[in-house]
Amino acid sequence: MSSLLIFIGLLLVLLVLRVPIFISLAMSAMGLGVIKFDDPYLAFVVQKMFSGADNLTLMAIPLFMLTGDLMNNGGMSKRLIDFSNCCVGWIRGGLGFVTVMTCCFLAAILGSSSACAAIVAAILIPAMVKRGYDLEFAGALTAASGGIGPIIPPSATALIYAVAASQSVKELFIAGYVPGVMIAAGFMLYTYYVARKKGYPAEPKPTVKSFFTALKSAIIPLMLPIIIMGGIVSGIFTATESAVVAVLYCVFVSVFLYKEIKVKDLPKSLMNSAKMSCIVLAVMTTANFLGYIMTLSQIPQATTAAITSFTESPIVFLLMINVILIFAGMFLDAACAIVILVPVLLPAALALGVDPVFFGVMMTVNLMIGVLTPPVGLNLYVVSSISDINILRLSKAVLPFIFIMIVVLLIMVFFPQTVTFLL
């Protein structure tokens, strides 16, 4: 365990000094290597970092990010919001329901919590405030609903876990549906309770004609998640190939069908996606070297021995891990937490008979709490900057949604078949 403490100490010092996360990971791993071993081990740094990025599955991450950019700029997101309004807007607190439902639709395509929150916040928060909703509630609901993104497939977080843990992307995607739906249902129930308590209005009921008009407008973007998951589940194409199909579909729809993006604007979307992808891929390169040093240091073996000597109950173990993950999510984003913690915690989970796919989905759900908690709390900062909401008041308003996510986590821990029965 001394090796793990050395690594954590080095990493925390570098993060406090505001060193970029991927450099912090690499320097911490190198520091651990120098302390524990001779210099020749460090000759593998570049080789291991290169092999960390040399993975076909990781190619899906920039492609799904490009899909999200094309959807937003190509008018597909607006059509999904209009359709969601026709479906659930007529319920009391209807715009809150629309927010959750829209995030579920976008989640099935974007796989990014911050992108989902940003798109919905810009459109629906002003609309909710205009209809009498409290600004803090509207912001908190949007920030929390954005966190559904990486849970419902396709998910960049699931892809990163699949690479780090050598698990099936297809199974991780399928297993994410039930927790995502449970969280969305919890958010809707709480929204209805608040709407009844504070008198938030319902939107006018759509006519049959307006409903089918909205459905006709949204059918093309609604087909995208069906194509993606249908192709993956049926085995027609892999997760990476599905990302290529998604990009081509969005380009065709946005440029040639809706004509809301010009061909000359495509390089800008490509550049935006490349910049966002570099952050994730830089972390993945250093994570591979980190895993190599951890294995040589026998950190996973020592952690497994320590945990199994403390408890042999999978439920007690998972409860302990959830506490660790909630704390880690307050300071690290999901990608960084996964690449750091999976090599340490997964061997112990396997030793106690925990399903690795279930473990990955549980980690994803848990770490989405991190996007709602300072000091990292990315969704809080995104919504705060877009809607000019005080970050402290927003952090307080989001607490009920965090509680709902914790309840879903507990259900998963005590009833893991809720995640695995679809596999």
TrEMBL record:
<keyword id="KW-0997">Cell inner membrane</keyword>
<feature type="transmembrane region" description="Helical">
    <location>
        <begin position="243"/>
        <end position="261"/>
    </location>
</feature>
<keyword id="KW-0812">Transmembrane</keyword>
<feature type="transmembrane region" description="Helical">
    <location>
        <begin position="137"/>
        <end position="162"/>
    </location>
</feature>
<dbReference type="Pfam" id="PF06808">
    <property type="entry name" value="DctM"/>
</dbReference>
<keyword id="KW-1133">Transmembrane helix</keyword>
<protein>
    <submittedName>
        <fullName>TRAP transporter large permease</fullName>
    </submittedName>
</protein>
<feature type="transmembrane region" description="Helical">
    <location>
        <begin position="214"/>
        <end position="237"/>
    </location>
</feature>
<feature type="transmembrane region" description="Helical">
    <location>
        <begin position="174"/>
        <end position="193"/>
    </location>
</feature>
<dbReference type="InterPro" id="IPR004681">
    <property type="entry name" value="TRAP_DctM"/>
</dbReference>
<feature type="transmembrane region" description="Helical">
    <location>
        <begin position="105"/>
        <end position="125"/>
    </location>
</feature>
<keyword id="KW-0472">Membrane</keyword>
<dbReference type="GO" id="GO:0022857">
    <property type="term" value="F:transmembrane transporter activity"/>
</dbReference>
<feature type="domain" description="TRAP C4-dicarboxylate transport system permease DctM subunit">
    <location>
        <begin position="8"/>
        <end position="417"/>
    </location>
</feature>
<dbReference type="GO" id="GO:0005886">
    <property type="term" value="C:plasma membrane"/>
</dbReference>
<dbReference type="InterPro" id="IPR010656">
    <property type="entry name" value="DctM"/>
</dbReference>
<feature type="transmembrane region" description="Helical">
    <location>
        <begin position="397"/>
        <end position="415"/>
    </location>
</feature>
<feature type="transmembrane region" description="Helical">
    <location>
        <begin position="357"/>
        <end position="377"/>
    </location>
</feature>
<keyword id="KW-1003">Cell membrane</keyword>
<feature type="transmembrane region" description="Helical">
    <location>
        <begin position="315"/>
        <end position="345"/>
    </location>
</feature>
<feature type="transmembrane region" description="Helical">
    <location>
        <begin position="273"/>
        <end position="295"/>
    </location>
</feature>
